[in-house]
DNA sequence: CCAAAACGAGAGCGGCGCTCCTGTTTCTGA
DNA sequence: TCAGAAACAGGAGCGCCGCTCTCGTTTTGG
């Protein structure tokens, strides 16, 4: 491409960055925009065809550039996929956090259901991206360190509701003992996440179960396991998620 | 397939059929053996490399035949994958049923945990096959009718425990009302599966939630979501699964 | 102002799923 | 019994794919 590289045209869906990214020279700016354009096109291709149909060559074609040029921006297909994974985690996390913020002041159970619904709705609207992060891990792919922080955002929104309920003394936690091994595990976790001691081992354990349960529900629905089984998806989800909330001590 | 169709489960790698498969002529027999060999090799390749690394050409190479010859036995890569999916469902289902049978006479909760453990253990020992059936749907999402019956086997083993507990009057079901829409859904399901009315709507609903919860636990463990979170996997699983059992009325 | 770095294009490698054609082997029934 | 039908294996080939290497150009920074 020429000097004042396309860039401006680029985004059939991408582009629209510019604001707040006015650093560096022409090349640096073009790089940011092209990187974004590639990711946007990849996301679009993901949405229509699924993860393993994602083709660097197809993206290059749509961008009117040689397929080899893509490798200036992503060292491999896996690296592009990883970038999409991080974006997906962040997008889902933002959706959960938005629901949490929007429900401020409401009763704990309302907020709980709101955040859970946000997770499910995001999944329904981003099926392939959901599959990318909560489905079968791609072969030989190891989650880089960059993914752990974004991955935590959604669940931390839920944790906050539980912690709040306990700090306000309105929680009805299950008063069951847990084995010593689990107790130690939970102590470490509580320490790492800065969760107060008022959230007991039983609740901590239940919280993780609930976390897996929530995504089990969403995954089963998205991945087709509920086909022919659950007809009333919305009602069923709300009801199940309310039960999950009770199991971690959130009062009705 | 032929009259006294194979069914002899094939060897772990291939061949070794012979017994009980004396139907038809040379060609029919060769077809059965080659079909089994292809599937065995595919399973092996699946175990080492993952689902989307499965290559018909590689299988053909290992079988010393032209890649085009494979298409005499499986019309496409997807069809081979579907066969593997069915086998995986059946294998998992058999593991669950074995655990159910082996625990006959024990208390309901013991049987419950045994079957759940069988599911998890099978998953740990067949990670890629598990991912094939409970992970992201691969072939652009379509589950042929042949998969629904095998897919039901594992969960039906769990359902049997719950039904037995209710019929014996030892269950402690959650006595909560469910919305009318869900109630109708559960009535249909109860009818289709032949579940007695004594298993109420609340338990039916909880059962499906529990089902999703169990596989959510296994999936999270297998797909790496518990990395750095849950250290004591065995203890945590047993504990969580016991809680799930209680939530569907199984007494301690 | 010029060397170094970044870049885009093109050719090419090996592998893939899948199809078509050809020649051979087995099966079937008049 | 024996020819036609059907099933089969091999080979060549098409259009993809991810990825690499080279080469000429453009931008950058000392």
SSE topology sketch:
The structure is a homodimer of 252-residue chains.
Chain A: H1 26-49, H2 56-62, H3 77-102, H4 108-125, H5 127-134, H6 148-167, H7 180-193, H8 201-222, H9 233-247
Helix pairs in contact in A: 1-2, 3-4, 3-5, 3-6, 4-5, 4-6, 4-8, 4-9, 7-8, 8-9
The first copy, chain A, binds a DNA duplex (30 and 30 nucleotides) through residues 1-3, 5, 25-27, 30-31, 55-58, 65-69, 71-72, 76-77.
Put the structure in a nutshell.
With 252 residues, chain A is mainly alpha-helical.
What features would you describe in this structure?
The structure is a homodimer. Chain A is elongated, with a radius of gyration of 21 Å. The model of chain A is unreliable at about 1-20 (pLDDT under 50). Chain A has nine helices and no strands. Chain A is mostly helical. Chain A has helices at about 25-50, 55-60, 75-100, 110-125, 125-135, 150-165, 180-195, 200-220, 235-245. At the A-B interface, helix 5, helix 7, helix 8 and helix 9 of A face helix 5, helix 7, helix 8 and helix 9 of B. The first copy, chain A, binds a DNA duplex (30 and 30 nucleotides) through helix 1 and helix 2.
Entry keywords:
252 residues, disordered N terminus, 9 helices, mainly alpha, homodimer, DNA-binding
């Amino acid at each position: 491409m020429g000097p004042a590289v396309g860039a401006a045209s680029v985004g059939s869906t991408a582009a629209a960055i510019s604001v707040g990214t006015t650093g560096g020279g022409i090349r640096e700016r073009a790089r940011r925009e092209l990187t974004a354009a590639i990711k946007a096109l990849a996301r679009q291709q993901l949405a229509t065809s699924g993860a393993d149909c994602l083709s660097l060559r197809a993206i290059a074609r749509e961008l009117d550039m040689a397929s080899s040029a893509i490798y200036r921006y992503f060292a491999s297909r896996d690296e592009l996929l990883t970038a999409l994974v991080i974006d997906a985690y962040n997008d889902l996390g933002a959706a959960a956090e938005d629901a949490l913020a929007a429900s401020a002041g409401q009763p704990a159970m309302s907020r709980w259901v709101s955040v859970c619904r946000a997770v499910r709705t995001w999944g329904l609207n981003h099926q392939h991206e959901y599959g990318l992060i909560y489905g079968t891990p791609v072969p030989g792919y190891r989650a880089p360190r960059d993914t752990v922080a974004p991955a935590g955002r959604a669940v931390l929104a839920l944790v906050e509701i539980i912690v709040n309920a306990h700090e306000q003394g309105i929680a009805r936690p299950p008063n069951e003992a847990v084995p010593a091994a689990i107790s130690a595990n939970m102590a470490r976790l509580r320490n790492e996440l800065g969760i107060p001691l008022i959230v007991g081992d039983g609740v901590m354990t239940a919280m993780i179960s609930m976390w897996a349960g929530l995504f089990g529900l969403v995954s089963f629905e998205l991945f087709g396991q509920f086909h022919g089984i659950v007809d009333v998806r919305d009602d069923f989800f709300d009801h199940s998620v309310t039960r999950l909330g009770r199991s971690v001590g959130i009062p009705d």
